Each structure stands twice: as structure tokens, then as C-alpha cells.
Amino acid sequence: MKKSWRSLTSSKRGAAGSSKAAPDRRPVPGRLILGVDPGLARMGYGLIRETAGRWRMVEGGTLSTPAGMPVEKRLVMLFEGLRALVEKHRPQVLALEQLFFSKNVTTGMAVGQARGVAVLVAGLADLPVFEYRPAEVKQAVTGYGQADKGQVQKMVKLLLGLAETPKPDDTADALAVALTHAQGGGGWQGKIQDNRK
Q1: 131, 136, 170, 173: which is the annotated catalytic residue?
Q2: Beta bridge partners of 95
């Protein structure tokens, strides 16, 4: 019987601290994966599905918010946009790039807030969430953990059979995270470690 993680709002969830079996992360034919590159100004997203033995892009783009708008309103915009995508496409899993704090703490906090929105949408939709370090995404997509952004984008285009490189960068990054999760069951570069805590 298929096992899944349940959201905190689910009435079927047990008491806090109770253990549950981890969801099966192996790609299966027809499985739809949603990759998200969180950001307050732009949240990139990419949906991919396995078709005839290859992964193909179903939809990709960005959710944008205006700079002059209060933060709480911008987060609501991101929440509503991402929730609409999930309700439209019904993905089976959400993949995120692990939050990395640079010297710019303000930017890191904004990204963290947007990431929280994505995790909340997944929780309400009962989607399991998986995170991958930037180096893991680069390794999975290009075979080199120190690849630059251009190399990652080129491989995303190649692996998904796209006519052109996805733009803007946020979209390509989201698709790269989705591809990283897709190959977790044994894809073109081998198995990726499950980083879910």
C-alpha cells in the first residue's frame, strides 16, 4: 500500500513526535514532480513528467511580486500562485534547493520566507518535500558539483529535450531541482541521497 506524509492539518496525523515511514522517492512512469526555486521577488517553478522513458517539462515559469508591496502581501501572492499550480497539475512531490545563507542576511531571510510558503503549500496538499544542496543539484544535472549556472542551464535544456534554454534563471533552477529528484531512483548520474530530516 502506498505510504505518504500527511500535512500538520490532516485529521489522520498522529500525535507530535510519532514516526511515519518515509515516502517512496523512486520515480515511476507518469509521476509528476514540482521543482521550486524560492524567492520573494521571483519564485521559479518547473513541473516535469516521465514520458516514454524520458523526463519532459509540463510547465515552467516564475511567480513574481512587486517590490513596493508589503512583505505579507507578497507572500500571500506567492502562496496563492503556487497553490493554484498544485491544484491545477496535482504533482506527487515537491523538490526544493536547500536554503543557503550567504553574507547577505536580508536576502537569505526573504528567500527563507518564500521557502516557507512553498513548504506550507506542499503541506496543505499532502505533498512530500525533498531538499537538495546546490552542489548536489549541479552534480545531478551536469555530473560536476562545481558547475556554473550556464552549464546547469544547458544540461536542463538537453535533458528535457527543450528547443531553448528556460528563462529566466529562476525557472531553469527550479527545473534543475526537479531533475535532481527525478534521478533519485537511479537515473543518468546515479542515486542522490535523500536529505529529508
Answers
A1: 170
A2: 35, 130
